[in-house]
């Protein structure tokens, strides 16, 4: 499945075009789930980023992937790893306990791109 990410914060993010991301892996967590996606490379804070870990910004509703499939947009925190490295499913449980692997985050709206299952 392909997603379109529209960045809302930071305010100075260069959003000349939406970030197109492919869902690589997803899972369920206490906060409603997570998605690891590979995206079209973009530059932010002197890093070339291509792997993001998405979490819902607001708890509630269903699993993150289910909500994206059934609604227009879902607000997410899009985290990148220190140095821009790829995320793996093994990284997800420790992210909340050990934020030292998180390089930073963006606030975005995510939606499914129609015609891209």
Your description of this structure?
It contains two helices and six strands, in the order E-E-E-E-H-E-H-E. The chain is mainly β. The chain has a six-stranded antiparallel β-barrel with strand order 1-2-3-4-5-6. The termini are close together.
End-to-end CA span: 4 Å
| Count of beta strands | 6
Largest sheet: 6 strands, antiparallel, barrel
Strands side by side in the biggest sheet: 1-2-3-4-5-6
> pLDDT under 50 segments (min length 5)?
none
Mass-distribution shape: globular
Average pLDDT rating: 85
Number of helix segments?
Answer: 2
Helix content: under 10%
Structural class: mainly beta
Beta fraction = over 45%
Assembly level: single chain
Order of helices and strands: EEEEHEHE
Question: What would you report as the Rg, rounded to the nearest angstrom?
Answer: 13 Å
Question: What are the defining features of this structure?
Answer:
117 residues, mainly beta, six-stranded antiparallel β-barrel, 6 strands, globular
């Amino acid at each position: 499945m392909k997603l379109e990410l529209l960045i809302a914060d930071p305010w100075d993010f260069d959003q000349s075009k939406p970030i197109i991301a492919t869902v690589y892996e997803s899972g369920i967590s206490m906060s409603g789930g997570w998605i690891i996606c590979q995206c079209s490379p973009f530059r932010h804070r002197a890093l070339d980023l291509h792997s993001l870990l998405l979490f819902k910004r607001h708890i509630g509703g269903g699993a993150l992937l289910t909500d994206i499939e059934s609604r227009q947009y879902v607000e997410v925190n899009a985290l990148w790893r220190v140095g821009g490295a790829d995320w793996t499913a093994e990284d997800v449980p420790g992210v909340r306990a050990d934020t030292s692997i998180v390089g930073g985050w963006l606030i975005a709206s995510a939606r499914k791109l129609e015609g891209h299952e």
